[in-house]
Amino acid sequence: MSEITKKEEEHLSSKDYENLLDQYQFDAKEIAPGKIIKGKIIKVTSTHVLIDIGFKSEGIIPMEDFNNILDKSEIQPGDHIEAIVERSDLKEGYLVLSHKRAIAFKALINLEKAYNYQTWITGKIIEKIKNGYTVNVGINAFLPDSHADVRTVKEPEKLIGNEYKFKVIKFERQSENAVLSRKHFLQDEREKRRVRVFSQLSQGQKIEGQVKSLTNFGAFIDVGGVEGLLHISDMSWGKIHHPSEILKVGEKAEVVVLNFNEKEEKISLGYKQLTPNPWENVGEKYKIGQTIKGKVVNLA
Q: Residue limits of the S1 motif domain (predicted)?
């Protein structure tokens, strides 16, 4: 070996050593226990999921971490995943990771933000328990019965398995305790809709709504998230006995805004006003003393 080659090799070895040392210090910082890292699934077995985390060592996540996923076929090679570093197994030469803990860690951050800034968070109601429900938001949170809806929930089982948005009304980071309110979220959304709807209303305006319910005295029509009353007297120019003669629950109907009061949150609607009043020109059609034929439809 020549003197020049020997010196070049010594020089390169020294430089490579410094780079490797820097890289090791960087890697050690990046993969320290408690650190959240992103990786790509490269293999799925019956006991664990193998993750490429971009370092010399690969990571593994025990399959028990995915117990909340009923269909394990959803975990596929090539998918990207977040996990938290739990420890390194020097004997086996890999890092032990936890996807479940990473989700919980991020959930606590999201809960804290939602609580501090009074924003909402998405979660799935997973079971009915005493005085409320368990909601999965990354960790389990409590939803009291009184906060499940703006009205009393008559069939709690219909909420199970569904995702909703919630306000966080109580949060303790240390104990990982969170109390949620779907009612508060719905009330906030209702207020936003109310402001929007009333800002766009005008007397005589024609709008489309959906029939929400029928009563003996009229129909309640949803017009953009706010309900207005269509009184039975404003349904037809003729006499009807019940709103069901004109409308059905669930159907769309065009109506006219007769009056509204934003402060009292009242909207009066009309249906017969979409057609001309047949009594307005009755004097032109029939003359006093004229004999006409008619049909008896009611006896008072």
A: 34-100, 118-183, 204-272
Q: Which residues pair with 166 in a beta bridge?
A: 121
Q: Is 43 helix (H, G, I), strand (E, B) or coil?
A: strand
Q: How much is the pTM?
A: 0.65
Domain spanning 118-187: CATH superfamily = Nucleic acid-binding proteins (2.40.50.140)
Spans of the chain, pLDDT less than 50: 1-12, 17, 20-26, 28, 70
| CB-CB neighbours of 102 under 10 Å | 22
Fold of the domain built from segment(s) 201-274: OB fold (Dihydrolipoamide Acetyltransferase, E2P) (2.40.50)
How are the residues of the chain apportioned to helix, strand and coil, as percentages rounded to the nearest 5?
A: 30, 35, 35
Determine contact, residues 76/42, Cβ cutoff 8 Å.
no
Mean pLDDT of the chain: 84
CA dist., res. 248 & res. 243, Å (int) = 8
Contact residues for 77 (Cβ-Cβ < 8 A; gap 6+) = 41, 42, 43, 44
DSSP three-state, residue 185: helix
What is the total residue count of the chain?
A: 300
Amino acid making up residue 161 = G
Q: Which long-range contacts does 66-70 make (Cβ < 8 Å, 24+ apart)?
A: 66/99, 66/100, 68/100, 68/136
Q: What angle do CA 38, 99, 122 make, to 5 degrees?
A: 95
SS3 74: helix
Burial class (CB in 10 A: 0-12, 13-18, 19+), 84: buried
